[in-house]
Structures are given as structure tokens and as C-alpha cells.
Amino acid sequence: MSRAGDVLPARGQAGRGRGGARAAIARYFARFDEGEVIRWAFRGLLIGAVGVLAMDLHDLIEARRPAVSPPADIATPVLPPAVATRDGEGGAATVDPRDQVTVDEDRLRRPIGFTLKPGGILAAEGFVDIGAAARFATEIEMRGEYVRAVLFNSSGGSLDDAIAIARQIRARGLATGVVDGAFCASSCPLMLAGGVTRSVGAKSAIGLHQFYAVGDMPVEPAQAMSDAQATTARISRHLSEMGVDPALWLHALDTPPRALYYLSMDEMRGYRLATGTGPIAAQ
Length: 283
Hints:
Blueprint lengths: L1 H29 L3 H31 L19 E4 L2 E4 L11 H5 L3 E5 L3 E5 L6 H12 L5 E5 L5 H14 L2 E4 L4 E3 L2 H5 L5 E3 L4 E4 L12 H21 L8 H4 L7 E2 L2 H6 L13
Parallel strand pairs: 4-5, 5-6, 6-8, 7-9
Antiparallel strand pairs: 1-2, 3-4, 9-10
Helix pairs in contact: 4-5
């Protein structure tokens, strides 16, 4: 009995302790206005919902972002093989001047950069990334008075930027060129066309191929055809305005992105892409 009597008071004290704790908690929350508590709870829920929506929006944007990899419009390798072409009934291959290219391929994979060299030569080397035209405009604004010609060594890239660079070159009345051992392909010939005179080294490589959109979002066939026709018209108009025969681009339309149609010197002269192999090409 004495042990039972010892236990009963302990249970009573525990009950009073729990009751005191509940009362203390109740007194603490009683200090706050009930409406204010509800408002804070609502704010917490709202902040959480906004956070979830923000993460969903970020995922959606990332899913729609074009998967651009250098160079933007040309499949690897940087120096694609020559495309096989058909002439009448027989098969033939275009010239393949890749063994004449002496530049490091890693340099062609970097975003295009501009370096002012002696004699008023602005060297433009690398792939044409989105935003290249804006950087070129800044370079010309700073050093344009010293520049007389732009020499290209590029695997191509953004069509919009390439055409914009060509127009800036023409507006400044500059010459363009591709020296021996250099490479100019894809959208690069469109920049080359911007020169008031255009010199091409006999041991350079100038190539064309089809453009294609880089991205994850599917495009309806009708829209893809419309876009392709609009792009072809835009390129043809650009070449014509620069004094180059738009028929040049027929070789690009026949050539898949993983290959190149390498132009011979006779073809470049015939299409007026090259106006000479003068002093600029010999630099």
C-alpha cells in the first residue's frame, strides 16, 4: 500500500504539469489576433505556391530553350567531308580542300573573336554565335578608322548575325578575304559577301550546306516548309544585294548539314563571291 500511495501523487503531478504546459501554450497564442494568425498562414501558403510556380516556369523555359552547341548551325566535325554530287548520269565529288586547312579545329569551335592586326586587317575567327553581330559592331565602333579589310576563319553559325555582320562591312566600305589555310563555311560565305572586294586564297576552303533550326520544340511540316522558303528567299536577296549571284546558294540547298559543298576557285569567280586573289589573300 505504501508503494501505491507513493505512485498516486506522482501521476497527479504529471497531469498538472501537462495541463500547465497546455495552458502556457494557449496563453502564448492568445496574445495574437486570430485574424492576424490567419493572414500570416495565408501568406505562407501564397509564398509556397509562388515558389512552386517559379520552379515550374523555370523548367518550362529550359525545356523550350534552343539546344545550341558550337557551331550553331553545323554538325560536327567542324571540317565536314565533301558531299557527293551527281552530274547527269555520272557521280562526282566536289573538291575537298580540307588538307589545305592549317587552323586548329578547337579555335573554330570558340565564339567568333576579332583581332586588329597590322595593315588595317581585322581577323575574325571562330563560330558565329548569337550576339556576334553586336560584338562586331562594338569592335568597329572602337577601331573602325584603322580597319580596311576583314579576314575570316569561321565554321559559320547564326544566320541572323552573319547577315548583320556582312551589312556592317558593306556600310563601312570594307574589303573581305579568306587567306590560304583558312576555313569559311556555312554562314561564313554570307559574311564574306559583304566586302566591297572579296579575296580568296587558292589554298583556302570555302563550303556551303543547308541550314537547320536547332531546338527541342517540334515544328509542323507546313510551318517548317514555310520557314525554309523564307530563309532561302532572305539569303538569295542578301547575296543579290551584295553583288553575288544568288545561284551560288543552290549548292547549299543540295547539301545536307553533315557535309559541305566545297567551292572551286572557278565557281567562286563565276558566282562573283571571289573578286580576286590579291594582296589581302596573301597576308
